[in-house]
């Protein structure tokens, strides 16, 4: 195959190292696709977090298929999150705030209007706090990079 012209701008992109076993690559491809399906489902449901499933899918694809990994990186919705994670092991602060806010909103609506058993309400609230705290603890590179410079203040 000819070299992909899109390779040049992304020299900082981590190298895709396929697993030597074809069986393992097929299993990783299946697992990555399942994780990506859960991520898409997580966009519409309060309990499934989208970002961790996208990152897990990217990890599976990185060991299974250069083509699938590239497709995920080039996706306009999920690509920036995956690239940020692969390059800096962080999630953009905006994405993190949106994820926590959407999760809190949808879980609150579910608990208030749709869930009746008290034990299930408690379980959803506890799950929401655990997931929110976990997401909050993931580093944000833009938060660390200097907030005064990003606001236009003296650096």
Automatic annotation (TrEMBL):
<feature type="transmembrane region" description="Helical">
    <location>
        <begin position="26"/>
        <end position="44"/>
    </location>
</feature>
<keyword id="KW-0812">Transmembrane</keyword>
<dbReference type="InterPro" id="IPR007401">
    <property type="entry name" value="DUF454"/>
</dbReference>
<dbReference type="Pfam" id="PF04304">
    <property type="entry name" value="DUF454"/>
</dbReference>
<dbReference type="GO" id="GO:0005886">
    <property type="term" value="C:plasma membrane"/>
</dbReference>
<protein>
    <recommendedName>
        <fullName>DUF454 domain-containing protein</fullName>
    </recommendedName>
</protein>
<keyword id="KW-1133">Transmembrane helix</keyword>
<feature type="transmembrane region" description="Helical">
    <location>
        <begin position="119"/>
        <end position="136"/>
    </location>
</feature>
<keyword id="KW-0472">Membrane</keyword>
